[in-house]
Amino acid sequence: MTVLRLAVASPLRRSFDYLPPLGTTATELHSLQPGQRLLVPFGSREVTAYLLSLEQNSEMDLAALKNALEILDPEPLLDPGMMGLGLWAADYYQHAVGEVLSVLYPRTLRHGKPHQPLGEPAWQLSQRGKGLPAGALARSPRQSQALHMLQQQQTVTTGEFLAQDISSPILNKLREKALVEQCILAPSQAVPVCTGSLALNAQQETVMRSLLQAGGSFSCHLLEGVTGSGKTEIYLQLIADCLARGKQALVLIPEIGLTPQTLTRFQQRFGSGIALLHSGLSDSQRYKAWEGARTGNDRIIIGTRSAVFTPLQAPGLIIVDEEHDSSYKQQDGFRYSARDVAVKRAQLAACPVLLGSATPSLESIYNVQLGRYQLHQLTRRAGSSSLPTIQAVDVRRLELAAGLSQTVMQAIEQTLQAGQQALLFLNRRGYAPTMQCHDCGWIAECNACDARLTVHRRSRRLRCHHCGAARALPRQCPDCRGSSLLAAGLGTEQTEELLQQRFTDWPIYRVDSDTMQGRDAMQNLVNTINQGEPAILLGTQMLTKGHHFPGVSLVAIIDTDAMLFSTDFRGEERMAQLLTQVAGRAGRADLPGTVLLQTHYPDHPTLQALLSSSYAELARELLLRRQDTGMPPIGQLLLLRSDCRDAQLGEEFLRQLRQQTETELPRDCRVIGPLPSPMQRRAGKFRSQLLVTAPDRKRAQLAARLLVQRAQALPARGGLKWSIDVDPMDLF
Ligand code: ADP
Ligand code: ZN
Ligand code: ZN
Questions:
Q1: Centroid of ligand 1 to alpha carbon of 381 (angstroms)
Q2: Which residue in 718, 435, 699, 378 sits closest to 567, CA to CA?
Q3: Atom number, ligand 1, closest to the C-alpha of residue 584
Q4: Which residues are near ligand 1 (CB < 6 Å)?
Q5: For the whole model, what pTM was predicted?
Q6: pLDDT digits (tens, 9 = 90+) for 673-685
Q7: What architecture does CATH give domain 636-726?
Q8: Which residues contact 163 (CB under 8 A, 6 or more apart)?
Q9: Which residues, in sequence order, are CB contacts of 115 under 8 Å at separation 6+?
C-alpha cells in the first residue's frame, strides 16, 4: 500500500503519514512529486500539507492512518531545488520541516487556496463557438455583439466586455450554450530595459572583470568596498549581464522601508520589471510577486530577509547587500540567516552569489581566508565626496549634560551656525548595560572570566553571562573610590530633551523605528533633510542603513563605550561596523565632515585602530582575536533557550538537558549554563539559556541534533517553551 509522507506546518519536528485521498487513481498516485500540496485532516482542523515522499510502509498502524482529503496542486509549484533548500534549512537550523516548507509559499497557498495563474480573467470562443458564422445570434443583439468581439480579437477580458456594457449574465448564457469559455490572459512580460549605466572607474572595472570571469556557475564573492565606492553600480551592471544571459537576479537588502534611495536607483536603471518583496505587502501583492518570480515573468526580485526563499524560474545571480546586517538573521521561530541560506541556495541553483558591504562580517572575511569566497575590494569613493575624519573625545571627569560633553555641544552649535547639519547617534538596542566609573574609567569585570558584568537593575546586581557569577551593585569605584558610577548604555531620552531645550532655533529630526513607520515616512524625511537646511538629526541604528546625507558635516557618537564594552562577543565588531557606516553617511567634497566619539577610553586598542587605520584592517585584527577565544566564525555556537513563567523550572529543564547530553556531545564541544538570559524577563516569562560551542560546523550539527532530540523527550512543565538557535546573532 502506498503511504504519503507529509510535512504539516506544526511545531512538531516530525513528518506525518497519510493514505492517498479516496478515489485517487494509480496514475495520479504515481505522478505525485515531492513538494505537492495536499489538504489533510489534522486534529480537528483541515490543514495544508506538503508531500515529502511516497512510502510503501509506515511505522504507524496502517489501519489507523487517515486519508488525505485532496491533492491541491496537479503538479508541484516548487522545483526540486527549492524543496532541497527547504529540507536543508530545516535540518541545518533544526526547525520543524512543515513550518520551514510553508515559508516557501505565500500565505494564500499556505492556507490551502488553489493556485491561480497570474493574469486577467478573459473569455475565448469554444470549439463550437468558433464554428459560428459572422453575424450569428442576431436574435439576441448583446450576445451577438459579444460574439463579434471574440471573433475579432480571439480573447476579450472581462473589463473590455464591461466597457461595452456586456456583463457576466450575457457571457454566462453564451457559456451555457457551450459557445465561449473562460481563460486567463497571461500578463505581458515586463522586460527590464537597462539605461544609464555609468562608465566604471579603474577599480570598479577590475572588480567587474573578475566577477564576470567567474561566469554563470556556483561561486561565492565578497565585495568589500568603502561606503560610496560604487558597489551598487557594480550590482546594477552585474544584473544587466545576468538579464542578458536570460536569467533572473535576486537581490536581498536589509530593510526595504529604510532604503528607498537604493530602490529608486534600481527602478531608474531597469524601469518597471522589478518585483518587490517585503513585509509591508498585502497578501495579494505578495502572491503576485511570488508567482511572477516563479514563472519567470519578473526578472529582477528585490526583497528583505524572507525573499531568499522566493522561487525563481531561471536563477542567474544572487546579491546580498550589506551582508553584515543583523536583520538577515530571523530572531524568532525559524531562526535562519538569509545570508547563509543565500549561499546554499546559489550552490543548489548553480549560480554565483555576491555578498557586498563596506563593513563585512568576520564570518565572510574568514570565508575569504579559507578560500571559500573570492574577495573583491573597492578602497576609494567613486563620487565626489570624501571620507570624514574620526576623533575621540575623552570625556573622563568632564561634566556631561544628559550624556553630552561641552565639546560635542559646541561642535553642534558651530555646525548649525555654519548652516550645516549635525547627526547624533544614540545607541538604543542590543547592548546590555555595563557599569563604569566616570572619574577613572574603571569597568566592572568578572573575576573569573575575561568578560564585563551586566547591570541587572531589578535585582540590583551585577552578573557575568559567561560563568553566572553575581554580586551586588557597588556604591564606590574600587579603583579610585569615586562615587560617580554610571550604567553605560542608558538614558538616551534625556539627550533628546536637552537638545530641544538648547537648540530651539533649529529643527530636530528623530529617526528611529518608532517614528519611521512605513516606506514613505523614511523617504519623506530623507527628502526634507536633504534639502540641506541646518538641522539636528537624532538617530539610532536605523540611520546607518544605506542613506546618504550630503548636508551632514558633523557626526557625534554619544555612547561609544556601551558598544566597546558590550557583553556580546561581537560587540567590537558591531561597533566598528556601526561607526564606519554612520561616518559613511556624511559629507561631500566641499564638506568633508568630522566624526566625534565620546569615550572614557580614548586609548582602547579597538578605537585606536579605527582612528588610525580602516575597518578592513581592524576586522582582520578582531578575527585574529577570535582565533584565541574559539568564538564564531572560528568555532560554532548553538543557543538553547527556555521561556517559562517559573524561572526555576526553566533552568531545571536546561540543567537536565545538559546532564543528558554532556557525555555524548562530539569531541571538544562545550556547554555553558544554564544561565539567565541578559534580558531575562520578557512578557512575564523568564528566559534562560544554554550556550554550546563546537570547534566546527560538522560537530555543531551533530550537537544540535542531539540536543533537539533530547529536549523533545524531556517533560516541559509549567508551559515551558524551548527553542534552538543555530549560529545565533544575539546571545540573549
Ligand atoms: P556604494 O553602493 O558602494 O555605497 P554607490 O554605488 O552608491 O556606492 O556609489 C556612490 C556614489 O558614486 C553614487 O552617487 C554613484 O552614482 C556614484 N558612482 C558610482 N560609480 C560611479 C562611476 N563609475 N562614475 C561616477 N559616479 C559613480
Ligand atoms: Zn574610578
Ligand atoms: Zn564570569
A1: 8
A2: 435
A3: 4
A4: 198-201, 204, 225, 227-233, 382-383
A5: 0.85
A6: 888 876 555 556 7
A7: 2-Layer Sandwich (3.30)
A8: none
A9: 72, 73, 77, 109
